[in-house]
Amino acid sequence: MPPRTILVENAVSGGKPTAVNADKYEAMRDAYLKAVPSGDPGATPAEILTAVKPALPDDLFPGGATAGWWAKCVQLDLEAKGVIVRGPKSPVRLRKT
């Protein structure tokens, strides 16, 4: 049986949604939303990745494998959906809306 998929958007390139593995996306999204602060100044993508790795299930991300790609996928999808936003200046800092 093929893995369950979910459609994700991309805040940077827009356009057509892409199908990705739903189990990995949902696990990363749940960990990501716990790691992203609600207030300013927010957190950098690197800080968020460091925070999410220990929360990821080892059966989906053995030893943190591919966590960086999935974190970026979730970040861009959540930005496109307006769940998180970037701060106004460099470096990129993210926070919940």
Note the main attributes of this structure.
two-stranded antiparallel ribbon, globular, 97 residues, DUF6958, alpha+beta, two-stranded antiparallel sheet
Summed up:
37% of the residues lie in helices and 14% in strands.
Q: Mind explaining what this structure looks like?
A:
InterPro entries: DUF6958. It holds the Pfam family DUF6958. This protein has 97 residues and is of the alpha+beta class. It has a single domain, classed as Arc Repressor Mutant, subunit A (Orthogonal Bundle), CATH 1.10.10. It contains 3 helices and 4 strands. A two-stranded antiparallel sheet has the order 1-2. Strands 3-4 form a two-stranded antiparallel sheet. The radius of gyration is 13 Å and the shape is globular. It starts with a strand and ends with a strand. The mean pLDDT is 95.
